[in-house]
Amino acid sequence: MSGHATFDLPEFPWDRLTPLGDKARAHPGGIVDLSxxxxxDPVPEIIQKALASASDSPGYPPTAGIPAVxxxxxxxxxxxxxxxxxxxxxxxxxxxxxxxxxxxxxxxxRVLYPDIAYPSYHVGAVMAGAEAIPVAEDPKSWPAAxxxxxxxxxxxxxxLMSDQAMLEAIAWARANDAYLVSDxxxxxxxxxxxxxxxxxxxxxxxxxxxxxxxxxxxxNLAGYRAGFAVGNPSVISELLEIRKHVGMMxxxxxxxxxxxxxxxxxxxxxxxxxxxxxxSELHRGLTAAGFTIHNSVxxxxxxxxxxxxxxxxxxWLAGHGILVAPGDFYGVRGKNFVRAAxxxxxxxIDAAVARLTATA
Length: 360
Ligand SMILES: Cc1ncc(COP(=O)(O)O)c(C=O)c1O
Fold this sequence. Notes:
This protein is α/β, with parallel strands linked by helices. The protein folds into 2 domains: about 15-40 and about 265-360, Aspartate Aminotransferase, domain 1 (Alpha-Beta Complex), CATH 3.90.1150; about 45-265, Aspartate Aminotransferase, domain 2, CATH 3.40.640.10. The chain is about 40% helix and about 15% strand. Helix 4 (about 65-80) packs parallel to helix 9 and helix 5 (about 95-105) packs parallel to helix 6 (about 120-125). The radius of gyration is 20 Å and the shape is globular. The two termini are about 40 Å apart. Pyridoxal-5'-phosphate binds near residues 37 and 118. Pyridoxal-5'-phosphate (PLP) binds near residues 94, 155, 214 and 227.
């Protein structure tokens, strides 16, 4: 624990990785950074142009989003998530910000999150002063609470929730009159299986279910901080009412960029093809170096193990100039795994694969 004056927050995970980063940077061929998973490919031109076209933006942007961005989010969600026609939508500054603030905004008291997960679910619960409860995959085993996270495709494992588990999570939300929030930021990155939105289940409309989406990965927009919440119209209106007081409005030019990004699927297909190649190369390299890849059927990472403690694997990889995330960042169940992101240039991925295969 960091001993922070106000919140009992864990040490920021990436700070713990600094020594391994130094070690990887010392490699004569340079570092291949597969740790954080930050996009490295350019922002598609149509999106850059849309942003620039809206740069004269003196006034406050509406919290609910301008009508054209509301339409873009709704149309995209109906088409791609198979959400119902009356679905509610709300733009958000990134989605990390929504993840960490949502339990506070909705005054949650007990927050469930997967026992192997993106660390911000835990952080958001702690900051809201709520009880933070890691839970197993099977919603039938979940205790009573007023808020639960699901995340499919999962960061870090790349696993998908089964239809059965999604339905059980929705049934749990109904039975507990709880919020069920589905973090779907990797939905468009399915490789061996096709991810499905919680909003595609008609049962979701009868519960307090919303999904969070992000343009960071599908459109290389992590630097724009563009995301949105979508789902049950009364939950979305409740959030809008609170957010009107709080602020956190998405900047006007980013709203215009988001309209262009959501209207175009060509750049998403092109980016998927880039990641698919990197994924198969990295899979080959890690396997040659004695790692076994688990899950990883979707999403932006390979979840790999050599049946040894994660820091030992991470240390060995750093010795070859390759920086990955130790699996214990995501929960104790990850202690024998490392997470390798697909977000390095082709040149860097090829360098990593050459080093890994040379160790075989
Ligand atoms: C599961 C998950 N949710 C949310 C986010 C936040 O992404 P962003 O704030 O870029 O939308 C991430 C980022 O890595 C993530 O892995």
